[in-house]
Amino acid sequence: MGKFGELYQSGDWKGEKHVPVIHIKDKVKKGEIVELRVNIGEEIPHPNTLEHHIKWLKVYFYGEGDKFPVEIGNYVMNSHGEYGVFTEPDITIKFKVEKSGIIYATSYCNIHGLWENSKKVEVE
Amino acid sequence: MGKFGELYQSGDWKGEKHVPVIHIKDKVKKGEIVELRVNIGEEIPHPNTLEHHIKWLKVYFYGEGDKFPVEIGNYVMNSHGEYGVFTEPDITIKFKVEKSGIIYATSYCNIHGLWENSKKVEVE
Amino acid sequence: MGKFGELYQSGDWKGEKHVPVIHIKDKVKKGEIVELRVNIGEEIPHPNTLEHHIKWLKVYFYGEGDKFPVEIGNYVMNSHGEYGVFTEPDITIKFKVEKSGIIYATSYCNIHGLWENSKKVEVE
Amino acid sequence: MGKFGELYQSGDWKGEKHVPVIHIKDKVKKGEIVELRVNIGEEIPHPNTLEHHIKWLKVYFYGEGDKFPVEIGNYVMNSHGEYGVFTEPDITIKFKVEKSGIIYATSYCNIHGLWENSKKVEVE
Ligand SMILES: [Fe+3]
Ligand SMILES: [Fe+3]
Ligand SMILES: [Fe+3]
Ligand SMILES: [Fe+3]
């Protein structure tokens, strides 16, 4: 019986459409309000139908020297055709951090499971 | 025993810091990917502490002639000081609609309850 | 442009399948861990398919003399046939309160919108 | 830069208070509505305060022979003292599966990060 964490998949988002793309400045200032965009399918679009869609995006921060990651936010995409409405897996959020660390973006496709990506952020 | 819906509060966001501010074009094209920003405290900042913070933002679409609203997305702000991380109540999402209707943005403050705002969107 | 709260629908759960059914003792003790079951479709089952299902259940507590309701919990049902898995709109949660008040249960059907029900709880 | 999945921690719930405890029958029938209880701190209670609490519980099913796990449900505990209300990290949910597989329960503590546990379920 494998560990849950091993179920997260990753890869190069330019070739694998499920991998969350992380858009954030490489360097931010301590306590500055930082903007972060996470989206799925930037290079190769992912389906968005009732049968097959991205259900949520989550963002974590894992600070240098910290023992545990912190969950910044969780976004659930809830419309996949109902009454002609389609929610895109594309979100821009804002937050503040006090030190350098790693941003993790995770996502869930109702057919293809859990995916992750990460990016280093330097706080100056 | 009052109805649940009556617990939603509203007002002018320029004077009441809890009211979600809705930023979206007045006119969009059918099937176009539309950008929507919802934030709290644009004029008067809201506290963001463990003791007092905005916990989530939700967005609905209620199409002209439809009987029921559709939930577009739900964003939960999860960090309020843990390890120096603060999630801001400010989100930009994307979606598609096929006809004119009303956008509802709702929010929840852990101390001051439920809030709402709305804005008409015309699809041409 | 109507108010958001007016979109919540209600009724008698014995005749209207969308109304959340609230199961809780009428009287609880202050600080006791209370069990609460909320389910949909107890008398008349609601569909559970990709096309038509209950997406979430939320529970609030509105204490006597309080100005604002508090959100106790939010449960999202995420499987509606994927790989043969179906999540039922039926949840039992636990919490503590310190005074009498009203429990509100709310739900969302992806086709028929927002629903609510309420039940008084007396703390002795 | 480590992988996200490696941040999930586990252990014996009798000695480590963060590990989700999974209560489910060992054998269930195909298509039967199964009851699953997941709780935190059954042996050693976990704190439930604004400063330190369990924020959510998630449940997945990973069927034998399937390539990907399915998310059954997500429960967010939202009250940690506001107006005297405390949501317990203890939930009972219901679902149906069609074949044997593994149940994964995951949780998030706002101070001690991500945790997981798993249990095999045989469908007869
Ligand atoms: Fe997919
Ligand atoms: Fe407030
Ligand atoms: Fe329905
Ligand atoms: Fe902890």
Description of the structure:
The structure is a homotetramer of 124-residue chains. Chain A has strands at residues 21-23, 27-28, 34-39, 54-63, 70-77, 86-96, 101-109, 113-123. Chain A has 124 residues and is mainly β. Chain A has one domain: Immunoglobulin-like. In chain A, the strands form 2 sheets. Chain A has a 5-stranded mixed sheet, with no helix packed on it. A 3-stranded antiparallel sheet of chain A has the order 1-3-6, with no helix packed on it. In chain A, a hairpin with a 3-residue loop joins strand 7 (101-109) and strand 8. The mean pLDDT of chain A is 96. Chains in contact: A-B, A-C, A-D, B-C, B-D, C-D. The C-D interface holds C 33, 37, 61, 63, 66, 68, 70-79, 82-88, 90-99 and D 33, 37, 61, 63, 66, 68, 70-79, 82-88, 90-99. The complex binds fe (iii) ion (4 copies). One fe (iii) ion is lined by residues 18, 46, 52, 109, 111-112 of chain A.
Question: Keywords for this structure?
Answer:
homotetramer; 124 residues; mainly beta; Immunoglobulin-like; 5-stranded mixed β-sheet; binds fe (iii) ion
